[in-house]
Amino acid sequence: MAEKKATTKKATETKATAAKKTETVKKAVKATVAVNAENIGFKAGDVYQALAAAEKALSVKEIAKAASISEEETLLGLGWLFKEGKLLSTEDDKVTLA
After folding, report:
1. Which of 1, 47, 68, 75 has the most CB within a 10 Å radius?
2. Dihedrals φ, ψ of 38, to 5°?
3. For the whole model, what pTM was predicted?
């Protein structure tokens, strides 16, 4: 009988631990992006290199993954490159080098 109580207590503790882990995972941390010319210029370089390596049109999500940067940083870099005339957009919402 003593063993059954210990098992029940352990199961309850395990459920409580699992609930805490789930709660921790749900709290996502948003990374901040420093918005200054130097940082955006570096992100533009990352975007350009990702597109050059791919040698085809990519979506924003694909560029972010290839460049290992966030989608927000990707959009900042794309804006910089579009302004310089280095990019073209395609009909299917993808971007390629000009």
Report:
1. 47
2. -65, -50
3. 0.67
